[in-house]
Design brief:
Layout: H1 3-12, E1 15-16, E2 32-33, H2 40-96, H3 102-110, H4 113-130
Antiparallel strand pairs: 1-2
Helix pairs in contact: 3-4
Length: 134
C-alpha cells in the first residue's frame, strides 16, 4: 500500500451516501463529499441549546426532590399558563395596533407613558444586575 493509496482511502471516508427517500428502494444515492455549511451563528445556537438543556436537566433535580412529580407538573402547568396568557395578550395587542418598539412601547400605548418609563428603567436595572452574574 503506497502513500497515495492511503490518501485516497482517507479521502473516500469523507464521502456519504444517502438512501433515496422517494423510491424507498434502499439503493444508495451517489457518494457526495461532505462540506461545512454551518455558519458560526448556527454552531453558537447549538452550543447555547446544549448548555440550557443541561442546566434545565440539572435544575429539575432539586425541584423533583422538594416537590415531587405532581408538584413539578402543577408548577409547570401554572407557569406555562401564565407564559401562554402573556404571549397571547401581546400577540393580540400587536395584531390590533402594530407598534414598533417592543413591550415598552406597548406599555406606553396601552397603559401609561409613566408606566413605560418605569418599565424601561426596571428592564435596565434587571439586566445591569443580571448580566455580570452570567
Amino acid at each position: 500500500m503506497s502513500l497515495q493509496d492511503g490518501a485516497a482511502e482517507k479521502k473516500s471516508t469523507f464521502n456519504v451516501g444517502v438512501e433515496s427517500a422517494e423510491t424507498g428502494s434502499g439503493s444508495p444515492a451517489p457518494l457526495t463529499p461532505l462540506s461545512r455549511k454551518l455558519k458560526n451563528r448556527n454552531v453558537a445556537m447549538i452550543s447555547i441549546g446544549g448548555v440550557i438543556s443541561t442546566g434545565l436537566f440539572l435544575g429539575t433535580a432539586s425541584a423533583l426532590m422538594n416537590g415531587g412529580p405532581v408538584g413539578m407538573l402543577l408548577g409547570y402547568i401554572f407557569v406555562g399558563t401564565i407564559c401562554y396568557s402573556i404571549m397571547i395578550t401581546v400577540g393580540e395587542m400587536i395584531a390590533y395596533l402594530p407598534v414598533a418598539g417592543g413591550h415598552i412601547k406597548l406599555a406606553e400605548r396601552f397603559v401609561d407613558p409613566a408606566f413605560a418609563f418605569a418599565l424601561g428603567w426596571n428592564l435596565w436595572c434587571n439586566w445591569t444586575l443580571t448580566l455580570p452574574d452570567i
